[in-house]
Amino acid sequence: LIFTDYNMNGDITGLEAVEKIRKFDPAVPIYLVSSDGVRERGIQAGATGYVQKPFGSKSIQDIVRNHLRSD
Questions:
Q1: Is 55 left (phi over 0), alpha (psi -120 to 50) or beta?
Q2: To 10 degrees, the CA torsion angle through 59, 65, 70, 71?
Q3: pLDDT value of position 71
Q4: pTM metric for this prediction
Q5: Are 33 and 4 in contact, with CB atoms under 8 Å apart?
């Protein structure tokens, strides 16, 4: 289970990270985190889901809990 921010400090964006991770592991759940409203672009890039900033810890806990139950 991976959470990646859309705006990362470095050479790639969160969208690019999603695409690279997808090539390496097509099955791993990836959630794109952003305040920029890039949900659709994230899903198109291969993200499993999207978390809108700001978010509460319950949002993340629910996602983690759902993935633990499905495994």
A1: beta
A2: 130
A3: 61
A4: 0.88
A5: yes
